[in-house]
Design brief:
Blueprint (H helix, E strand, L loop, with lengths): L4 E6 L3 H11 L5 E7 L2 H5 L2 H4 L3 E5 L7 H11 L4 E6 L4 H10 L3 E4 L4 H12 L4 E2 L1 H7 L14 H11 L4 H8 L3 H15 L4 H10 L6
Parallel strand pairs: 1-2, 1-3, 3-4, 4-5, 5-6
Helix pairs in contact: 4-5, 5-11, 8-9, 8-10, 9-10
Length: about 210
């Protein structure tokens, strides 16, 4: 029998929490074990702090989602935090990435994307929903900050920011999958990024993509 996935919901709108709970609880091996109306309340709930996955709103009273995420991960580094936002804005995304969130969903995401995000973070992967990717990725701009990357590496980075898989990037650039993996490794090293989420933040902060 597969391990039950314990879920915590942190959002200041009770109706939204109730709706999400109704969609998640008891499905695909998930069980909602705690709810909180803001970050401070979340940090005081033992059940929430012991959850596997936390759906965290960012704009909340008392204690914001990014600050709550930072404090929670200091206490329990195994928590998988998925950011829930009404906005695909770069500033919200950046704040949650820096806080340690692993997943990013807009509040109008489909339930299929919700479960896809849960599956990804439970497998120690990041998940960025399509709508957020579309909001964050645009035309690539060449400037001084891009000089550390080759033209081909910039092409690969753009594909990453658009949410393409390694195979999709390889097909679009007429490269082998192994070559794309090599470019990705070089990009991570050159930019000092740790994962896909931080690569997207790097690209935005250095004006390599238009938001």
């Amino acid at each position: 029998m597969e391990k039950e996935i314990k879920i915590a919901l942190v959002d200041d709108h009770a109706l939204f929490r109730n709706g999400l709970r109704g969609l998640i609880d008891g499905r695909q091996g998930c069980r909602v074990v705690a709810e909180a109306s803001d970050g401070a309340e979340f940090l005081e709930l033992p059940e929430a702090m012991a959850a596997d996955v936390v759906f965290m709103d960012i704009a909340m009273p008392t204690l914001s989602g990014d600050k709550a995420t930072t404090l929670a991960l200091e206490r329990n580094p195994n928590l998988k935090v998925i950011c829930l936002s009404m906005f695909g804005d770069e500033k919200y995304y950046s704040r949650m990435v820096e806080a340690g969130a692993k997943g990013f969903l807009l509040k109008d995401s489909s339930i299929e994307e919700v479960f896809a995000a849960i599956k990804a973070v439970m497998n120690d992967e990041e998940y960025i929903c399509n709508a957020v990717m579309e909001a964050l990725s645009g035309a690539m701009r060449r400037n001084e900050e891009a000089e550390i990357l080759s033209e081909r590496e910039i092409d690969v980075l753009l594909g990453i920011c658009r949410g393409l898989s390694t195979q999709e990037i390889a097909d679009s650039l007429y490269l082998s999958k192994r070559t794309v993996d090599s470019h990705r490794a070089n990009i991570l090293e050159k930019t000092g990024s740790k994962n896909t989420a931080s690569l997207v933040v790097y690209a935005i902060k250095h004006n390599l993509v238009e938001v």
